[in-house]
Specification:
The protein is α/β, with parallel strands linked by helices. Helices cover about 40% and strands about 10% of the residues. Helix 3 crosses helix 6 and helix 9 crosses helix 10.
């Protein structure tokens, strides 16, 4: 009887696994119990192996990576929004090398904060597959048994201290507060946790410094025509810390060198390419060459498409039709300025992200050094520009 009971329990488990736990199936189980012992044939029951969920698999992959590459007791985690283009991957690789050279006592890793970019890069959207896991996986790995860095420096590779930078801050807060309750509280109470700020964190220091370096890099171009930088920007509803003002401040700082510098965005209200065009017209620059350059950490999708792409579906042969926000959709900066009488074409597109410009990259690295030299982060408060 004990043998029959064990078989019945195993069979019932299989029925439950395949979703047969209905009233009708319960009656069938009862009938099976009544089958004479000599007619029962035992069938081995294979217990399904429970697979780890995606989170566990990702965490294991990152932790294994860190354990395999740990050489120092201190670590720098670079956090970028993300990219799916080979040029962006190369820019990140060069940035990691530059950090390894400048910060010899630190291990260096890089993470994406954008889930969309993480997924698309892993899928090989533009032909090359790369794994850039989200910051929580890296921070957890840094605190794992067998790792436990003494100092963790998180460096934001954002341009402005806006929405994406807020995500970085929140990742650090969750980590420091052991939000999931699965880390060593004693370790967290002792580890030195530091944060490097975005490129344009400070209006007083960073904006003039970036303007100075950009002018050195683009002064030959601006001597021939307009130089229009294309930043990203936050939508008004997500303009965290009112960070969009950094673009306006940067344009003002650049125009102290030359009035033909302009800074627009793809997502800041009242600072689309249409508004850049209006400012150019008002300043008397009604024709001539327009050079365009991305004011983003890398030259990725926005640079290749929104700035330098061939999309001009909005052009009807005579005019553009702006949307209610004043932007001309479905049209790149190259096509927009080109249709409006400027010399703006493939030859005037300067497709290099800011991380590809060593003197600009150095400003981020200066922020990292400032973080290292400073006190451990008070993670209960955000390092915002206000």
């Amino acid at each position: 009887m004990k043998k029959i009971k064990n078989f019945v329990l195993a069979f019932a488990a299989v029925c439950f696994t395949v979703g047969l736990a209905s009233c009708e199936k319960e009656k069938e189980v009862e009938k099976i119990v009544e089958v004479p012992v000599e007619k029962i044939v035992e069938v081995p029951v294979e217990v399904p192996v429970v697979q780890d969920n995606n989170w566990s698999q990702y965490q294991k992959a990152v932790t294994d990576n860190v354990k395999a590459n740990k050489k120092e007791d201190k670590v720098i985690l670079l956090v970028a929004f993300g990219c799916t283009w080979e040029q962006g991957f190369d820019a990140f690789d060069e940035t990691i090398k530059a950090y390894q050279k400048a910060f010899s006592g630190y291990d260096v890793f890089l993470s994406y904060s954008s889930a969309i970019c993480i997924n698309r890069a892993a899928a090989g959207e533009n032909g090359i597959k790369r794994n850039y896991y989200a910051p929580p996986f890296w921070l957890n790995a840094f605190a794992a048994d067998g790792v436990k860095y003494d100092e963790i420096v998180v460096q934001s590779l954002q341009v402005i201290p806006g929405e994406e930078y807020t995500r970085v801050i929140n990742y650090i807060k969750d980590f420091a507060n052991n939000a999931n309750g699965d880390l060593d509280d004693e370790y967290l109470s002792k580890v030195a946790l530091k944060l490097g700020v975005p490129l344009l964190q400070s209006a007083e220091e960073d904006v003039p410094a970036v303007a100075k370096e950009l002018n050195e890099l683009f002064k030959e171009n601006v001597a021939k025509g307009v130089v229009a930088f294309m930043g990203h920007g936050n939508p008004d509803s997500y303009d965290t810390y009112k960070a969009n003002i950094r673009y306006t401040e940067l344009e003002t700082a650049l125009q102290k060198y030359n009035k033909k510098y302009f800074v627009g965005t793809v997502d800041m209200m009242k600072n689309f390419k249409t508004h850049v065009y209006a400012r150019m017209q008002n300043a008397g620059f009604k024709n001539g060459i327009v050079y365009c350059a991305p004011l983003m950490s890398i030259d990725g999708d926005h640079g290749h498409n929104d700035m330098a792409g061939d999309d001009d579906e909005n052009w009807d042969g005579e005019k553009f039709t702006p949307n209610e926000e004043g932007e001309v959709e479905d049209t790149s900066w190259k096509k927009y300025f080109g249709h409006l009488g400027y010399e703006c074409n493939d030859e005037t597109m300067i497709e290099k992200g800011l991380l590809e410009l060593p003197t600009i990259r150095q400003i981020w690295m200066n922020h990292t050094q400032d973080a290292i030299n400073g006190d451990p982060l008070d993670y209960y408060h955000s390092k915002n520009p206000e």
